[in-house]
Amino acid sequence: MHTDNQNTEERRNGEPAIPPHLHSYLNPEQMSAIHQVEKFGWFLAFVRRPLFQPSIPILQNRDNPSQYAILQDDGGIDFNAEILVRA
Q: Is residue 32 within 8 Å of 75, Cβ to Cβ?
């Protein structure tokens, strides 16, 4: 995981930082995966929404807040992903 402490150009174009109803961005496979990993302290922290690309759901570990993972379209979870998080 990387943290970007530099002033980064705002790219949301008026969209909220964390959109309401995060789970609405998930498909059934992803919802099923979330229910499984919630038992182990993981939760849906935010959803990246890059322009002209699919949304990227990001999970965070409650017990270790510096630990993130990517929830893939098929419900798989990439615990070793390099995720850049702004401070």
A: yes
